[in-house]
Design goal:
Strand order of the largest sheet: 12-11-13-14-10-15-18
Radius of gyration: 26 Å
Helix content: 25-40%
Strand content: 25-35%
Structural class: alpha/beta
Largest sheet: 7 strands, mixed
Number of helices: 17
Length: 477
């Protein structure tokens, strides 16, 4: 039997053993037919004693199939996550009660610090995947006959139309269970073999967010704080979806949140809640877009305005207007680099002199996974592993690669760190923007500005991450 088939069987039959049973006996369920239960166990196990004990415990006829101990360890960590590792995660049991299934699934994903849950339907199977540290991990398989009940339960909780299966739908769930309370953004998409649902788990608690722990170098943090301390102007953070821009913005708002300031935000969706900050949820369906909200904000006597994203020319113009009238505006934008923000604003129709007069700080941000400190392996570094034409910023003789262990669920990585490129726009750079000069690399080097590639390479050289994690950033050197 191939490894892939092995994993599918384990996923489909995971409820046949409890987490405690699986770990105590170091066993995994293979299949069950009537009263005959076939299990995997570690090579070298006394199978006769194991069979006898399990038959008494489970009341079934047990058949044993030994497999390598390393494979048992990997699969136990993947499918029967320990409480100590998951901080109290609930083991999910697959059965037809859609209420319990969904409740346990969401609770487990939250305890694993997952950002998204993907529930997908295919021709012969349905599966559940979760995103941990930016990577998708398959967790469970569902029977096709169980799938519609689960989708309908999600639709009911998020106030969506259960009879509409042809069009995409978006909703929201306010999840409350025991001590947990957070919001979930729901997206339903019709696909060839059924509806695909993505649940985005929104972190309502901003108390642990701190600018000092996000990943700024001391030099970049100082430059960033200089921009934050200005009474007016625009501070823009650029990066792709899922790069941590919103977290950086909320850490900034937390710093600015004083009784003496009136702070207004418009977001889609509201991902965190901050006491003392007036937060507005975008509602495009009734005409409440970013630009419309900004227009109203200017009549609300604000000191600081946060716009979730500058998507179009109208929003960009309103943000510029707010900055010109003496407000500090924080927002995000999609560009590849910090200086690319300038070109993007000009391409959106903002005159260069207005960009020069209002933009006070531009930031680029990415998230990179950190190697698991318990299992990373040291290797000799071959210079041919770098991208072609890339010149390393320093000599690195050895590097670390991911290996995988129980503590990192055999991914080789544990946790993520933000990488930044921060450019404070001074008078000289503002003059270059007015003159339409976009080639300012030499000026930035003179100011000691570290690029995304340089900061990522520094983390790599310190052995905190792997070359494959920073590889995409090295093309932006």
């Amino acid at each position: 039997m191939s490894l892939t088939e092995d994993i599918i069987l384990l996923t489909d039959n995971i409820h046949l053993l409890t987490k405690d049973q699986a770990w105590h006996y170091r066993i995994l369920p293979k299949s069950k037919a009537g009263t005959i239960f076939i299990i995997y166990c570690e090579d070298g196990t006394n199978t006769q004693d194991l069979q006898s004990e399990l038959e008494i415990l489970l009341g079934l006829t047990i058949e044993v199939e030994p497999i390598p101990a390393a494979q048992i360890a990997r699969l136990l960590s993947k499918y029967y996550i320990k409480d100590s590792a998951a901080q109290g995660a609930t083991q999910l049991h697959i059965h037809k009660d859609a209420d319990d299934f969904l409740l346990n699934l969401i609770g487990e994903a939250k305890n694993l610090k997952s950002s998204d849950i993907h529930i997908e339907s295919y021709e012969n199977k349905c599966r559940v995947r979760i995103r941990i540290d930016g990577m998708m991990v398959e967790r469970y398989l569902l029977k096709r006959e169980e799938y519609p009940a689960l989708i309908n339960k999600i639709k009911i909780l998020s106030n969506l139309d259960i009879s509409e299966k042809r069009l995409p739908q978006d909703g929201r769930i306010n999840f409350k269970h025991q001590e947990q309370q957070f919001d979930i953004r729901v997206s339903v998409l019709p696909t060839l073999h059924g509806e695909k649902v993505v649940l985005r788990l929104l972190n309502n608690d901003a108390t642990d967010i701190d600018l000092n722990t996000l990943g700024f170098s001391a030099f970049d943090l100082d430059n960033y704080l200089q921009g934050v301390k200005r009474p007016n102007g625009i501070l823009l953070i650029s990066g792709p979806t899922g790069s941590g821009k919103t977290t950086t913005l909320y850490a900034t708002l937390k710093l600015l949140n004083k009784e003496t300031r009136n702070i207004l935000t418009v977001e889609d969706p509201v991902e965190y809640t901050l006491e003392g900050v007036n937060q507005v949820q975008l509602k495009e369906s009734i005409g409440l877009g970013f630009a419309a909200a900004l227009r109203t904000f200017l009549r609300q006597d604000p000191d600081v305005i946060m716009v979730g994203e500058i998507r179009d020319t109208e929003t960009a113009n309103m943000a510029i207007r707010a900055a010109l009238t003496g407000h500090l505006v924080l927002s995000t934008i999609h560009t590849n680099s910090a200086w690319g923000t300038v070109s993007r604003l000009i391409d959106m129709g903002i005159p260069p002199f207005l960009v020069a007069n209002t933009l006070n700080t531009t930031v680029a941000q990415r998230l990179i996974r950190l190697l698991c400190p318990h299992c990373k392996k040291e290797n000799e570094l071959n210079a041919e592993l770098y991208p072609k034409q890339f010149k390393p910023y320093s000599i690195v003789a050895k590097h670390y690669t991911p290996n995988g262990c129980e503590k990192c669920y055999y991914t080789g990585y544990k946790g993520r760190k933000a990488v930044y490129e921060v450019i404070p726009v001074d008078q000289e750079l503002a003059m270059e923007i007015k003159n339409g000069n976009m080639y300012v690399n030499e000026m930035l080097k003179e100011r000691g500005i570290q690029t995304l590639a340089e900061n990522a390479f520094q983390i790599f050289s310190e052995g905190m991450t792997s070359l494959e994690e920073i590889y995409p950033l090295l093309f932006n050197y």
